[in-house]
Amino acid sequence: MGRYVIRRLLQMIPVFLGTMFLIFLMVYALGDPVAALFGDKAPDPATAARIRAELYLDQPLWRQYLHYMEQIFRGDFGTAFNGQKVTELMATAFPVTLRLTLVAVAIEVAVGVALGVVSGLRRGRSLDTGLLLLTLVVVSVPTFVTGYLLQFLLGVRWGLVRPSVSPSAGLGELLLPGTVLALVSLAYVTRLTRTSIAENVRGDYVRTAVAKGLPRRRVITRHLLRNSLIPVVTFIGTDIGTLMGGAIVTERIFNIHGVGFQLYQGVLRNNAPTVVGFVTALVIVFLLASLLVDLVYAVLDPRIRYA
């Protein structure tokens, strides 16, 4: 297992470097960050040249990339155009987005897997049909519609929760936005679990466990569910990074100044260092989540062994 982890970590290095080169190319080569600083006004040539030199933009693109990657490995993600360090923005944005993501993942795992098991065990019945229709509706409705609707009903009209979230929000305060963020993923987890359960329930190992007289709950939890969760774990692992980077709509609705909010502001203001810095951090999250998923496979299925 240890050698496998080391090998995977080494494999991540070229993936990380290649991904970062593409991101750097799209942000810096396909736009002019200096011109974006001045908006519709044409910058003074001398001022523009000075800013380019300060931001290392007067060098060839490959040198800019090497310079940026050198900064990354030193823990320096650059400086935003307002003079603030990108790491300072990350220090305020990532903790709240991480808590929001944890709430969302917990909701989609607990509720989605439970509904998927119930639906898969009752395949073809009215409950199964109802859950499939419900998940189809959840997937079809845009997040901003669901978010504003739940915010109005639960936060404004009924006063059950706060309609907005404070910067130092705890897990309890993030329950509503976490639910909004998790709804679409929850529907997919329900459908994946339902399909996997329905396929594996007819497996020989399940019939053998039942023939041995094992309790139904043990058959479901120790045998059926454990083998059925592998595709679900794959989806959830990749979904962690997606939730962190794709929470722009949810964070805007509930006034959360997290990763999605900072990315939105960076794109809106053409703030290239902010965009590249936050995307770099999200790439690292994706790679680590992928490694974690592979390790969880061995826990769920003892037949999987890593050398």
Could you explain the architecture of this structure?
The chain is mainly α and 307 residues long. It has 14 helices and no strands. The chain folds into 2 domains: 18-73, no CATH class; 87-300, MetI-like (MetI-like fold, Orthogonal Bundle), CATH 1.10.3720. Helix 5 (86-121) runs parallel beside helix 14 (272-300), helix 11 (230-245) packs antiparallel against helix 14 (272-300) and helix 13 (259-268) packs antiparallel against helix 14 (272-300). The protein is globular and about 85 Å long. The termini are close together.
Layout of secondary structure:
Blueprint: H1 2-29, H2 33-37, H3 45-54, H4 61-73, H5 86-121, H6 126-140, H7 143-157, H8 175-200, H9 204-211, H10 216-228, H11 230-245, H12 248-253, H13 259-268, H14 272-300
Helix pairs in contact: 1-14, 5-6, 5-8, 5-11, 5-13, 5-14, 6-8, 7-8, 8-10, 8-11, 9-10, 11-14, 13-14
Biggest beta-sheet profile: none
User: Taking Cα atoms only, what radius of gyration do you get, to the nearest Å?
Assistant: 23 Å
Mean pLDDT: 83
Structural class: mainly alpha
Number of β-strand runs: 0
Which second-level CATH architecture of the largest domain applies? Answer: Orthogonal Bundle
Q: Stretches where pLDDT falls below 50 for ≥5 residues? A: none
CATH topology of the largest domain: MetI-like fold
Helix content: over 70%
Top CATH class of the largest domain: Mainly Alpha
**What global shape is seen?**
globular
How far is it from the N-terminal to the C-terminal residue, by CA?
6 Å
Residue fraction in strands: under 5%
The tally of helices reads 14
The domain tally reads 2
Would you identify the CATH H-level superfamily of the largest domain? MetI-like
Say what oligomer this is: single chain
What is the helix/strand order? HHHHHHHHHHHHHH
